Amino acid sequence: MPDHITIRFGHAVCSQRRSKHLSQEKLSEITGISKRHLANIEKGIVNPSLEVIDILARELNLSLDNIIHEDLDETDQILNILRIRMPEYTDEDKKFLYRIVNILPDSND
Q1: Separation of alpha carbons 53 and 103, rounded Å
Q2: Which residue would you say has higher pLDDT here, 82 or 91?
């Protein structure tokens, strides 16, 4: 019987793949993971290796913290997403985020 975490990971892979408008076949080509294995991962019926988890997490920008620790509060989830995506952002994107954060009111005020 699949673990709850295996099912959550599969749902996250499927959801993120679809949000990126990728078919299982295209994701298979990109990652080198067979289409059949991807389908089984998405259904939560296989326990993928750490290597496969790493490949999919990097390709799909998945936050494993959010999957493993589903009880993270919204702030932690946002910080995890930013941490994962930050290397993809341009310097202009980073400056924009910095400006947004600095215009928000300080929670100590």
Answers
A1: 37
A2: 91
Q: Report residue 105 as tokens.
A: 């009111």
- The predicted model gives 55-66 an average pLDDT of 87
Determine how many CB atoms are found less than 10 A away from the CB of residue 44. Answer: 19
In order of start, what are the domains of the chain with their CATH numbers?
1-70 (1.10.260.40), 72-109 (no CATH)
* Phi and psi, residue 70, nearest 5°: -65, -10
- The encoded tokens of residue 80 equal 């995890």
DSSP per residue, 13-46: HHHHHHHTT--HHHHHHHH---HHHHHHHHHT-S
- Measuring CA to CA, which residue among 103, 104, 24 is closest to residue 56? 24
Res 70: pLDDT: 64
